[in-house]
Amino acid sequence: MKRREAREKAFQILFQIDMNEMETEDLKAKLEKYETKDPYLSDITHGVLHHKTDLDHHIEQHLKNWSLNRIAMVERSILRIATYEILYVEDIPVKVTINEAVELANKYGDDQSGKFVNGVLSNIVK
């Protein structure tokens, strides 16, 4: 699986977890289904879940006139993945991470999602 595909699958999993407020056992079962398929997918999903509080705090520090709770779940999930990559994955250029996040936002969000995600991530990397 290419990293782009892994990011998209991670987004789908993390969005679903956030949307359904999954219990720990359900979450483990969901993740185990994908863990053996791709190590990068596993790294992203586990990394975001493990560092969720720190990621949310980091994102919130770079929001202008927004709070994390006001952000739609699509954008919030994408921002968590991208912020995780920026902070914890050293072998991916920041520009690639931002571009991939914007692509996901354009695909799954509304017509302003890509611009919003790009703006927040640009603030994070300044």
From TrEMBL:
UniProt domain NusB/RsmB/TIM44: residue ranges: 4-126
InterPro entries named in the record: NusB-like_sf, NusB_fam, NusB_RsmB_TIM44
Entry keyword set: RNA-binding, Transcription, Transcription antitermination, Transcription regulation
Molecular function GO labels: RNA binding
Q: Which GO terms describe its biological process?
A: DNA-templated transcription termination; transcription antitermination
One GO CC annotation, please? Answer: cytosol
Family membership, please give it: Belongs to the NusB family.
HAMAP family the UniProt entry points to? NusB
Q: What does this protein do?
A: Involved in transcription antitermination. Required for transcription of ribosomal RNA (rRNA) genes. Binds specifically to the boxA antiterminator sequence of the ribosomal RNA (rrn) operons.
UniProt protein name: Transcription antitermination protein NusB
Q: Which organism is it from?
A: Cerasibacillus quisquiliarum
